[in-house]
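Quick one:
INPUT:
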């Protein structure tokens, strides 16, 4: 089952983080913060909530997939910066198995 954590400002949702757990790991499926609210620490707060929840569930690993560092697409460079700044490490390179799909990397944060 997938779940979502939301960040709210004056009754307006300004950020979300979707997650699920699988085989003793927490999987961060997707997160985003509204553009006007970037760089205000909301992403870190959402992640920190997921970390606390994971510890409560005795899950000590969070994984997320994203585009590889080798990919020049600028928005994902910023996304990776966010994950690396928050203690994620690259653990796997996944070659795309379907023509037209992107290669992915798996980043892990050990809690
Ligand atoms: C990635 C994202 C969720 C970060 O949210 P945020 O609330 O802006 O992040 P924070 O303010 O908590 O940033 C924490 C740190 O991450 C790094 N960081 C965040 N955004 C960055 C950017 N655009 N460029 C470089 N570093 C960045 C910085 O080190 C930042 O700390 P600082 O502001 O003190 O320098 C947000 O940029 C976003 O929604 N991006 C578009 C969607 C996306 O890429 N989602 C992830 C795919 S799952």
């Amino acid at each position: 089952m997938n779940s979502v954590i939301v960040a709210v400002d004056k009754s307006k949702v300004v950020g979300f983080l979707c997650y699920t757990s699988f085989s003793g790991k927490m999987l961060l499926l997707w997160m985003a913060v509204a553009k006007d609210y970037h760089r205000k620490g909301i992403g870190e707060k959402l992640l920190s909530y997921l970390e606390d929840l994971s510890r409560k569930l005795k899950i000590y690993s969070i994984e997320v997939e994203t585009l590889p560092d080798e990919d020049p697409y600028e928005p994902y460079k910023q996304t990776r910066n966010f994950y690396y700044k928050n203690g994620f490490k690259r653990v796997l390179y996944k070659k795309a198995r379907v023509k037209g799909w992107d290669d992915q990397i798996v980043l892990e944060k050990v809690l």
